[in-house]
User: What shape does this take?
Amino acid sequence: MSFTLDRRAFLKAGSGALLGLSVSSPARALDAGGEASPTNWADLARSLNGHLLQRGVPNFAGIASPWNLRFASTMPQAIARCATPEDVRTCLLWAKATKVPLAVRSGGHSYAGFSTTTGLLLDVSAMNAVRYDAASGHVHLGGGARNADVYAGLAPVNRAITHGRCQGVGVAGLVLGGGIGFSQRLRGLTCDQLLEMEIVTASGEQLICNERENTDLFWACRGGGGGNFGVTVAMTFQTHPVDLVTAFRLVWSTHVDELLPAALDLLSSTPDRLGCKLSVDAGKEASLHLLGQIVGAKDELVRLLAPLYRIATPSHEAISTLPYWKSQAFLSEEGDPEYTHERSRYVFKPMPPEASATILDHLRRWPGTSEDADWKMFLAGGAVARVAPEATAFVHRKALMLTSIDLEWSDEDSVETIAANQAWLDAFHEAMRPFASGESYQNFSDEAETGYLRAYYGANLDRLVEIKRKYDPTNLFRFAQSIPLVL
Assistant: This one.
């Protein structure tokens, strides 16, 4: 079949073919078949402003590889490196006409590998422009912008949005899932600062979504998860001014059994100006780590943490009052590719001492890999909780904290070692059920989560399904945990 850029023919061929697909089939099964002819690929390549990379080009596997190396063996037939929204439209209509499955990638940090495919990988990472408008305080981002681009674009003007620590993460994926960060308790989630999003839908239309236009889709874009409704090609955020903050990295290597329950009890009562991640290493010699920032002075931080200092003096203490963007250099990480499986739960009520005992018991029984494992908590509340759960698609508004168990390994570990560690992870995750909720963070996508739709979207799921049917009626954007057309 020869490919031509006739939109009417595209829509006719695409809709007729895709309507017959089962909406409940997982992405891996849907990827079966769908091989395009050399002529099809040549036509697509000629139609793009960007570049089409096919198997056989130098470093194709490296370019196609996602952040989570567990899914690196899933290779696309080709990678479309889109340069413009028109390239995105072209790829979507081409995929519908040829029946080739597709996946969308910005940063490639899908925890469960949902930005991989055996068909066409639609890569928008080149569309990463950042433009700040001083008159309005708005920042306009291309759909492929990453945290690092936000850092570079906003640091010179001393403005910020709620952003992530990992510089390689795509902002589109971050905001579509809600978007957590150290500023969330003071400023809200990333999606709370979103003013407008431009999306290319399955029909090839480029829609502007805001509080006046396509308001239902705009609602879904704030917490409805990435890859469900279309391809983000542009975003506009309201920024806020930033000045000095006190960044800290503290480690306690003793008295962890006393420190963990004390810290969990203390942190939720701290001012919204404080944002932090608490983690405890796996292994017999567990240590407690506290990383974060406060809009305030060092003395205030030390006063707030005095109950922990009274239990034990940190074995490592780094506290610095710095200009905001210098503090982010202190706090951030690159986000290099790794083998990892992370399982999360939101917590809506204070965790009793029994929860800390359960956490430490499982951490100390870690089977071990050549890498690391830990239990962690991201402090929530504040401005996040002041927005109603139904106001945006992000439903976890009233949670006190987001918790997760992170398991990492390398290709040096045997199949048996990995299996033993996965069993440990699952048992640990289940053991935390009495102390947490059934809700999970949609940006920490977890293919082992059986009730994922309600875990990610809760009471907002039904409305999301309606919006899915409206904007993607042929279910073009589908993967193993995508929002379905029917429940």
Notes: The first strand starts at residue 51 and ends at 54.
